Structure formats: C-alpha cells, structure tokens
C-alpha cells in the first residue's frame, strides 16, 4: 500500500487529446484524477476488419461484432494519471494475430482515473454490471458463454471475476494479470476473482509484495521469478515511476510475449519457488504424455488435465530474463564430487558454442553441499539456447571474502537439457576446481546407458 501511495504522489501531468480520427481509449489529464470523474464505460470493438480503428459498441448496437466467434474482453485497472495503458494497442494486435476473434476493449478510464484508489475500487462492480448487460445482449443474439474470454489487469481481474460470478462460472475463461492486492487481500471469494468464476481461470502474479495479490486465485496461478521482484525492474526509488509500476505491469508483458510465439515460456507446477529453484519439480508432476503448462494465451492447454485434480488448482513457478521474449532455458548440472571433505558453495557455469556465443548461469540462490561420491543435481537457467555446446567453464565459490581458498574435486560433471531431452548429454571427468578460478574444458558425449 505504501508503494501505491507513493505512486500517486509522483504522478505527472498528462495532456488531453480529443482530436482523433478513430475512436480510441479515453485520455484524461492529471487534473481529472485530482477532481475525480464519474463512471462512463465505453466498449471499443476491434476485429480482423478493423484491427487499428475501433468501433464503439454497446448493448443496443453490437456493430461488427460476430456473435459466432470468440469474444475477448480486455479490462484495465486503476489509472492514477488518466493516461491510456501503454500496452493496450499491442495486446489488441497480438490477440487478433493469433486468432480471428472479436476484441472488446473495456474503457472505464472515466471512473478508474483518480488519485484516490478506493474510489476506483468502489466502481468495479458497476463496471461488471454494465458488462453483464452487454453480454446478455450477445447471448440473445446467439453468442455462447463458452466463447467469452476476459483478460483483466489489476482491478480489471476482479471485475472479470464479478462478471463470471453473475454467470455462475460459465464464462469460457478468465485471465487475471497481477490482480490487485490492496483492498482485496484476504477478501472472501465472492468479493474478488476466484477459480469458480469461469470454466478456466489462469492468473499471473508478478508483484505480490506490493500492488498485486499474493495468494492463488485461479485454476493455475503462475509466479514468475517467485512473484516478487522482476528482472529488469528498478530495485530502488531512484528508478522513478518505473520502480512503482514495473513489477506490476510485467504480468502484461509476459502475456504479450506468449502471443508473439518467439518462444514458449514453460512453467513448473510446484509447492514453492524454492523447490522449483532446487530442481524438485521439473517433471511437472504429470504423466509423460502431459507437457508442462505454458504461460499466457495457451495456458488453457492444461484445462482438461486440471479438471481431474481435486481441487482443480495448482501453482506454477518459472524464471525469466530481463527482456522480451523472457524465456529461460533449463539444464541440469549433475556434479559427482570426490573431495574427501564436505564442501558447501555456489557454481557459475558458462556455455559457449562454436560461433563464440556465450551464455551464463549463476546457481547462487542457496549453497549446495558437495560430499565424496555423492551426486548433486543443480538446476541452471540460461538466457540463450545454444544448439551445440563446444566449451564449458565452471567457477566454484564459497561466497567468503576472507579466509582460506578451497578446492572442489569433481569425479564427473554431466550437463543435460530439460527443454530438449533428445539432445546428447555432455560429460567431463576428473576436474579440480580452485575456488574463484574459472576452469575451462571441452565436454564429450556421455556414454549411453546399457539396457
């Protein structure tokens, strides 16, 4: 809540612009946020016929909306400056690129624009009622609840939940992008988004320690980087406005990446982020015939699998890089030690291909314990996926600045890709790692197990 207050206090003036050729998202000024605005919801339709120029529609005029097609509603959240969401156009375009559908932007900026968060929050149920009236008209014209998909950001996630509750959970799908935490944390299910609000509810939690909701709210709840600080976001107030919004908005950018299909962000169902980082959940807890869940647009591939669980809910964890497309590539690093004394420390591993491309993973979230003839399996995360690995380097460190330097004697190291289990596993034998000294070697293919 403190970050929310600071965000409001640092907002800057935004110029108003009403001279537009095409109807577009309402743009208000900071003055409007100070004096307050009355609720006025505009529904703006985008289709394959009008990808960039919206058509304003309502419950008495459906315009070009084709009720036989999927209809996706995008619902934004709190707008303390009155400016349009910077991601809205990209989200509309991305959705229309992956499927021929109706995309309806729910513009409730006149209502969400205020420096008083409680005023915006208090209007969420009114927005939901307006959407129900519109959907009722769609149903009367032949639409199906199965084909209705709601993407709600922050407060918009709870608005989606309220609409879903009005239809007894029969909406096709709701995606909550970092649902708002302030004023909703600890609320009963009927007062927030919850798994019963649609046939499938997926949620991305990217700012659980500030503006977002921490606890699970869906059938599958994704926690990028544990749901806390996101890579690339400022860690202090010196980052300016980005410090307050970046973690919260990252849920939207991760979802956008899933529409671009540059790479599929895979998540791992797990009891905790720590267990995921320690490599305890890489089989997804599923039969081999079921692949791990994907983040974002294609998360509903897990819908049928989750139906068989009791309750039909799971949490999934994954790490990301700082920039789009955010994908991390996982490898297991198996180290069989033959040091006579127990060694505790961290491993940094670099991979290089024949073209000189290098990618690095620091496995330093907690110290690993190496003991004689005992294999330690470490989960390494790399920013690049190298097709072939020509060279590897290792650094062993205890993390101690002063004190004696140690060695780690390695009987065998094995590198195996999780993303591409068909790739040959790479080995090296008889290494001595001097603490804080980078050791280079060329790997060889591990011998295949004899059956």
Automatic annotation (TrEMBL):
Oligomer status and interactors: Interacts with TTMP/C3orf52.
The keyword Ribosomal protein appears for this protein: no
UniProt binding sites for Ca(2+): 192, 194, 197
Cleavable signal peptide: 1-16
Record field: catalytic activity: 1-hexadecanoyl-2-(9Z-octadecenoyl)-sn-glycero-3-phosphate + H2O = 2-(9Z-octadecenoyl)-sn-glycero-3-phosphate + hexadecanoate + H(+)
The protein's name: Lipase member H
Domain of life (superkingdom): Eukaryota
Physiological role: Hydrolyzes specifically phosphatidic acid (PA) to produce 2-acyl lysophosphatidic acid (LPA; a potent bioactive lipid mediator) and fatty acid. Does not hydrolyze other phospholipids, like phosphatidylserine (PS), phosphatidylcholine (PC) and phosphatidylethanolamine (PE) or triacylglycerol (TG).
PANTHER family named in the record: LIPASE, LIPASE MEMBER H
GO cellular component: extracellular space; plasma membrane
Keywords: Calcium, Cell membrane, Disulfide bond, Glycoprotein, Hydrolase, Lipid degradation, Lipid metabolism, Membrane, Metal-binding, Secreted, Signal
Subcellular location(s) per record: Cell membrane; Secreted
SUPFAM superfamilies: alpha/beta-Hydrolases
Residues annotated as catalytic: 154, 178, 248
Gene that this sequence comes from: Liph
Membrane topology type: Peripheral membrane protein
Organism of this sequence: Jaculus jaculus
């Amino acid at each position: 809540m403190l970050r929310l207050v600071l965000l409001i206090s640092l907002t800057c003036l935004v110029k108003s612009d009403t001279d537009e050729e095409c109807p577009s998202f309402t743009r208000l000024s900071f003055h409007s946020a100070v004096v307050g605005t009355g609720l006025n919801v505009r529904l703006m339709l985008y289709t394959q016929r009008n990808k960039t120029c919206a058509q304003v529609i309502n419950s008495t005029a459906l315009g070009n909306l084709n009720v036989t097609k999927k209809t996706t509603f995008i619902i934004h959240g709190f707008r303390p400056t009155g400016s349009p969401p910077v991601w809205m156009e990209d989200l509309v375009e991305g959705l229309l690129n992956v499927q021929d559908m109706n995309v309806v932007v729910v513009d409730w900026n006149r209502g969400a624009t205020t420096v008083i968060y409680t005023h915006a929050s208090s209007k969420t149920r009114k927005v939901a009622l307006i959407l129900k009236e519109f959907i009722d008209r769609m149903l009367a014209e032949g639409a199906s609840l199965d084909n209705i998909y709601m993407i709600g950001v922050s407060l918009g996630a709870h608005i989606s939940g309220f609409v879903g509750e009005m239809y007894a959970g029969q909406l096709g799908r709701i995606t909550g992008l970092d649902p708002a935490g302030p004023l909703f944390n600890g609320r009963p299910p009927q007062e927030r988004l919850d798994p019963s609000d649609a046939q499938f509810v997926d949620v991305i939690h990217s700012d659980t320690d500030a503006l977002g909701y921490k606890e699970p709210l869906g059938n599958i709840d994704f926690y990028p980087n544990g749901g806390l600080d996101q890579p690339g976001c400022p860690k202090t107030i010196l980052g300016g406005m980005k410090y307050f919004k970046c973690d919260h908005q990252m849920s939207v950018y991760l979802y956008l990446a899933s529409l671009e299909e540059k790479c599929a962000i895979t998540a791992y169902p797990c009891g905790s982020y720590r267990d995921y980082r320690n490599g305890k959940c890489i089989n997804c807890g599923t039969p081999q015939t079921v692949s791990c869940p994907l983040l974002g647009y294609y998360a509903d591939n897990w819908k049928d699998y989750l139906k068989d669980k009791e309750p039909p809910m799971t949490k999934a964890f994954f790490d990301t890089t700082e920039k789009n497309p955010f994908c991390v590539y996982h490898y297991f690093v198996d180290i069989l030690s033959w040091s006579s004394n127990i060694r505790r420390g961290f491993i940094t591993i670099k991979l290089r291909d024949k073209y000189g491309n290098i990618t690095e993973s620091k496995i330093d979230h907690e110290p690993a314990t190496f003991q004689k003839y005992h294999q330690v399996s470490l989960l390494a995360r790399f920013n690049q996926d190298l097709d072939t690995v020509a060279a590897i380097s290792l650094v062993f460190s205890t993390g101690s600045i002063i004190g004696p330097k140690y060695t780690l004697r390695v009987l065998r190291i094995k590198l195996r890709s999780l993303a591409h289990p068909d790739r040959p596993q790479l080995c090296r034998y008889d290494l001595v790692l001097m603490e804080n000294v980078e050791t280079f070697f060329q790997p060889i293919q591990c011998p295949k197990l004899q059956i």
